[in-house]
UniProtKB/TrEMBL annotation:
InterPro entries: DUF2087 (IPR018656). It holds the Pfam family DUF2087. This is DUF2087 domain-containing protein. Residues 85-107 are annotated as: Disordered. Residues 16-85 form the DUF2087 domain. It comes from the Bacteria. The lineage of its organism: Bacteria, Bacillati, Actinomycetota, Actinomycetes, Micrococcales.
């Protein structure tokens, strides 16, 4: 397990984010960790699906979804109807990370 994984997981309680870390570097590490569990690189999903997936790992899924977009980890259409992963993270190869879909859905 590398340092990034350790740093992110120490802020999770039973695998869930209950409070966002105050330090920017810690917050970024946690968001990278969550992004890997919400959408795989190259995967697209609608707002309802993204929110449901974030709710599996965070107590405030709407805020965390917004944080993921603001951090540049998720992109979204202007109307918020579709989301996608913007970049890979150090956590994409961890157990629990979303796997790339066999057949990507492109809206």
């Amino acid at each position: 397990m590398d340092d990034e994984r350790c740093r992110a997981e120490r802020f999770l309680a039973r695998g869930r984010l209950e409070r966002t870390p105050r330090r920017v570097a810690d917050r970024d590490a946690v968001l990278d960790h969550i992004a890997a569990r919400v959408l795989a690189p190259g995967e697209w999903a609608d707002e309802r699906e993204v929110t449901a997936r974030v709710a599996e790992v965070a107590d405030d899924p709407v805020r965390v979804r917004r944080d993921l977009v603001e951090a540049g980890l998720l992109g979204r259409r202007g109307d918020g109807s579709v989301y996608w992963r913007e970049r890979v993270t150090p956590h994409d190869d961890e157990p629990g990370a979303r796997e790339r879909p066999a057949e990507p859905w492109f809206p």
